[in-house]
Amino acid sequence: MDPALLPWCALAVLTALCLLLRAELPWLVNFPKEWTLPLAVYVNAATDAIVAVVQPAFRALSAMLDAPMRGARLVLAWLPWPAVMLCVAALAMKSSGGRLAIFALLALAYILLAGYWPQSMNTLSLVLLAVPISTVLGFLLGVLGYARPRLRQVLLGVLDLMQTVPAFAYLIPLLLLFGFGPVVGLIASAIYATPPMVRNTMLGLDRVPAAISEAGLMSGCTRRQQFWQVEVPTALPQLLVGFNQTTMAALSMVIVAAIIGGFEDIGWEVLSSMRKAEFGQSILSGLVIALLAILIDRLTIGFARGPETGPTRAMQWMTPRRLVLSLAVAVALAVANRLATPDATLLPETGLRMEMGAVNQWLLGLVRDYAWFFDGVRNVVLYCLLLPLRVGISGSATPAIWGFALSPAVAAAYFALVLAAAGLMLRGFGWRAALAVAVAGLVLYTGFLGLPWPIFILAVALLAGQVAGLRLGLFALAGFALILVNGLWPQLVQSLYLCTLAVLLCLLVGGALGTWAAHSDRVSRILRPICDALQTMPQFVFLIPALMFFKVGEFTALIAIVLYAIVPPIRYVEHGLRHVRADVVEAVEQMGATPMQTLLQAKLPLALPVVMLGLNQTIMAALSMLAIAALVGTRDLGQAVYVALGKADAGMGLIAGLSIAFLAILADRLIQAAVADKTSAV
């Protein structure tokens, strides 16, 4: 017998005992409130003491940042829209050529005609100030991590926390330190957007070839000259990729910043229209953010890729001198016109948003007329997928829910079927596959809410210990224990079953689309711009269509999470299948395998490490959407963070945010270890 199987056998016995005794010992399922510890109270007490000392300095910093932010808003509001459009078109021409310039003009024309030009300029003022702060800070931290290997691991751990803690959790200490206002949104955006620049700086400097560094030393460069004149220029493409990701991260925070900033920008327009159920305005303003995100992404990634990837004629024509000259002429003409007619705004008197009342009524009528369809879809998913994962088959099979009760004979037949399936997996794939089937059958029967918490914690800790080592097992044990004693176990369970279902749906649908795209260039070309758009849209935008058709509730949150997290499985499955070794595929086909056999028995096993990386990114995306999905009525850890933000409860917000970060880091480390194991096996 495999020694690794023995702990699982002991855990199976303990599981049976807990399930038999959970009626007599209800604390096995519901952790008693009397056993919880008031850690949030202690954190609040420490926070209050620290804030009282450092708040004046942070308020002074807020006042210092308020002036340049107001200045940027006034300048962008004062510049006529033709000047801005010509400048952006010239930059787009230099970045990627004429096609992007045309797209830039069309996107800006839509923003103008929609009536959101002033709000968009206010949003750009926030981004234009947040991005330089994030870029400089991220570059300095990245250089520090590159030059000091001992600090690198600490820095990477901090970055993992920053990228996995929900954005709402950032806002609570910032509100206490800086107060309400646009500056808080600016600072939150800058902090949120810093990690991509740090990682790309370290990655770019690490990838500088040793031969280039040695050539700089042999040329007589000092260490400073070698860094600035040799290493940084060589790493510049990767640094520009970091700048691209930093810019997109800052833009994705505009709606979150609007929650605590409260000034007239496009994020506030989206948020206020969603709150008033004005779906026409929500779609209109959400599309503005999406277009801005796509445009900024294409601009920055075009400069990151370098001129060799763009249209040659456009690049040769748009030299830096001509670019500067074109921008200067455009701005000069527009400014001269503004000075001649200072009262003229050159903006349309009414935008499309002023005409959206009829569209709102039409959308509400559409939702009302087809409510039977949308309610039917929601109820099917709720009662057939969400509810069984939450309370299990044993809780769903009641006359009030499914219309019948689960008899002991049916329950026995169910467990017999699960054991038979586990036996088949044992013969074909080993005890680990059989164990996975048995665990899935148990969770489906009891649901996440009905599973005894000691069994869940021990099972995950044991899995982490066997897959990635003792340290990760202890980390899992400590993290779940911290969540448990803080009274957040019900919220954790809600988060787990919601994210589990979202990830499964993403893998099913996204994996199928990725497989189709891997075998069809036409499908790949169709899916590529769709994935690009989904990947660049801020998270809040995904709530608009889900909220419009399905109202508030867990199903709406599930739709938003799936829309946001479906891109990684599509991209990674397609990439993995397209890069399987051709000689292996040919050998399998020559042996007489059918296309389906080739896919299932050759391509997918070889592409599994890449697919697992896609699974990792899918889980990260699903967890990051929890706090955003809390706005539409979930009761998970994201809702705990959002409620803590409303109460300015720093302790609970920090603990709930760290709980989500813990889940993300644990899943990331588990999948990384599994991928490393698969890669070494291959």
UniProtKB/TrEMBL annotation:
Residues 120-300, 492-671 form the ABC transmembrane type-1 domain. InterPro entries: MetI-like, MetI-like_sf. It comes from the Bacteria. It is found in: Cell membrane. The keyword NADP does not apply. Belongs to the binding-protein-dependent transport system permease family. This is ABC transporter permease subunit.
